[in-house]
Amino acid sequence: MKTETFPLAMPDDLMAEVRRTAKATGLSLSDAMRRGIRFGLVRVREELSERITNVDPLPKTYLDQLYREREDDLDSIRQFVAAQPKEAE
Contact at 8 Å (CB) between 31 and 22? Predict the structure, then answer.
């Protein structure tokens, strides 16, 4: 198994929790952290991937009508493009 070392700053209270978990399970500190990350990533992904607003999405018929209409902001787009650097770095 290929591994990668990553330095990780950890608050004292979280490190204490890792130590308690390692002691209670008989795992090394490293194994307790790896398993915590592995199991916890699923939950992090689930919780942070959810919709975070109470506002319902716009109805598809309204979106179709909204995006069918041409926006009249060509002047601002031209100003934005003109302000961009002309030479690549």
Answer: yes
Q: How far apart are CA 15 and CA 36, in angstroms?
A: 12
68 vs 18, higher pLDDT: 18
Q: What is the pTM of this model?
A: 0.52
Contact predicate 28/22, CB 8 Å? yes
Q: What is the largest CA-CA distance in the chain?
A: 67
pLDDT value, residue 49: 77
Q: Whose CA is closest to 19, among 5, 44, 36?
A: 36
What is the average per-residue pLDDT within 50-67? Answer: 76
Alpha helix ranges (H) inside the chain: 12-25, 29-49, 60-68, 74-82
